[in-house]
Amino acid sequence: MRAKSVTEQARRAQIVAAAIATIAELDYAETSFKAIAARAGLSSTGLISYHFRNKQELVDVVFADVLERFQEFVRARMGQAGAREELRAFLVANIAFLREHRADMVAFLRIRANAAVTDGGIADSDRAGLADLLRQGQQAGEFRAFDPDVMAVFVLAMRNGVVLRSGSLDLDVCERELVAAVDLMTRS
């Protein structure tokens, strides 16, 4: 397999960016090569087909791209002393990424809900990682007694709800209220 030229890499990136914006605006089901080509300013859907065999391949690339950037962004803000501070850092980082990359997150969640993407078990991994953090907080006496697996589901559901409804919401208020709600839910 030959290496892609700089021009080909740029065109692929342009198509991925247009796919993200299109999925975020139109929803997954309405997203087509035609709609993506129009958003990207391409003269033909053939330019997309040259780089991606079909919608599923493009969606897989979009999903992986957003996931990688999101994980790097959140990881860079983690590493706090104590489970309570780490949980707060996680929530704030999630909202910060959303603030800077709303369309990416909306597209990501819509793809995850509607497409046959291979997410490598990321949903289970996220829930398990958060549940482990909650267990650590319980063991350290920072959090009250609750089922960490169930609480992780609740916290992630609230985060995902903010992502999907964020267009009309003040994200500063969302961040403050999400952190406060999770603090109240977990406080000893």
UniProtKB/TrEMBL annotation:
Keywords: DNA-binding, Transcription, Transcription regulation. Residues 15-60 form the HTH tetR-type domain. GO terms for molecular function: DNA-binding transcription factor activity; transcription cis-regulatory region binding. It holds the Pfam family TetR_N. SUPFAM superfamilies: Homeodomain-like, Tetracyclin repressor-like, C-terminal domain. The keyword Acetylation does not apply. The keyword Kinase does not apply. This is Transcriptional regulator, TetR family. It comes from Lentzea albida.
